[in-house]
């Protein structure tokens, strides 16, 4: 590979952007509401804008022209001027953008480009009848939707007839026109009913002043007055992404991409944006290739269930942008429950699980593009894991995100000069890119005080409260689980035929087993090679003394209670997993209790909406003699303990 960079933003007449997919709303009428917000920028803000590179690529000529300062405008949302509300079933807005204006929106919403084009994370998308579902949580940096021109020859305004007057009479002077609609994933935004601190996870009601309101699943942000982080891609990252994307476009070889770095260096963000580059190329060239995704970070999984690692297949042509916390566009090939957010808790088991994922990939998948999302564990035994992956996965492209403190650790990573890729002795050389990691500017405005542990809790709650999934859409019910009847499943000689604890707890007294399970999160697995001799009954409980390692993960479950006399477990499982469990009910089922923590919101329903609910798992009984209660010291709080 040479040092030439691929110009992803070059527009060709092949980029028509037309699609057979429909993205059309129902009959609506325009809402003529008074202007309720006018943005005034101060002098320093205007000077900052005037200092930007004000150039644009001509639609008809392959040259650049300077854009005069007095023509450059920041986006100033004004109702019935550049924003028109529509009273339709999706609560849509039509927004006009002038040259190079950047629109920032938080929440979950659907985006259709009606006229012109947009640039999103350095990728260009033309107007089309097709739309995108965009995920912009306020807890992550938000990418700009920047106006651009249509890159093909024959531009068409993709708007329903009942709205055409709005575009032709009121918005015809705008370079780009987009339609923003409520997502049908609005139920994913209601997690604050159960966990009030999540009220600002996607949208902040304090920011509903730019034509937005509480009925929308999105909020139009003001980049000067609202507190949020903007996502920007520096030239170093962009150059590396362009080179890898060029290889993907030309498909010279089987791409295997590994991104390494310490914690909070931007590994997941780099891969997310890189896959968006692949998407943009696939939409242009109408490629239908699938991407195989190794999700090996149990603490911050992109597509896996909480505290799991997995290998999955996803379509590169999916119509999603941004940071999707809930993915239904994937086909799960293999998933393994680790039972902790940190692989350091079970290092040998983690390495063995990585080995199983790689074996599944090598044995079943050939000549495909794949990527690995790694945790930030690059010290000590973590280096052993990384070197194992390099030697067995044999990545064609290795991206190392470095900080000043991590350079010494990355020096311990051993990258061979070349790999042997087949039995005929053919070899290939990996391309290695060492670039600076993402760094948070201390002067940037940080909106949310939610720590990584809170985001893990959010993912676990949305996982447990998913009730149905169809056509790549998920419905949620954030009513406390204790309001609902649990699923009953027998244990002992049928149903759940084995219960496995961590090795240090494998010799629990039978009197303590019930308390060790009730109110906890467990994994339900199948095991085809299960040997009944490995089970010892402690009372009615079938306890596995010798650990099993060849299990197939089915689902997480929350144990509500246990009927010991009838040998029945009362459990909650996600509604989206019930069919999977039902299909495997006649197989050997094993419960695995590890370190996954139950969200306190499921145990202590002390919320305004549910204040009359009895609190489960809490005892009002008088304590026995010499029995004590652990008390939390409240005079010591670390940053991660503060929810606000």
TrEMBL record:
CC per GO annotation: Las1 complex; nucleolar chromatin
Superkingdom to which the source organism belongs: Eukaryota
InterPro entries: Clp1/Grc3, CLP1_P, P-loop_NTPase
Gene Ontology molecular functions: ATP binding; polynucleotide 5'-hydroxyl-kinase activity
Pfam families associated with the record: CLP1_P
GO biological process, one term: termination of RNA polymerase I transcription
Start and end residues of each Clp1 P-loop domain: 261-411
Record key words, sorted: ATP-binding, Kinase, Nucleotide-binding, Transferase
Biased composition (Polar residues): 1-14
Ranges where the record places region Disordered: 1-27
Family membership noted in the UniProt record: Belongs to the Clp1 family. NOL9/GRC3 subfamily.
Protein name: Polynucleotide 5'-hydroxyl-kinase GRC3
Species, as recorded: Tetrapisispora phaffii (strain ATCC 24235 / CBS 4417 / NBRC 1672 / NRRL Y-8282 / UCD 70-5) (Yeast)
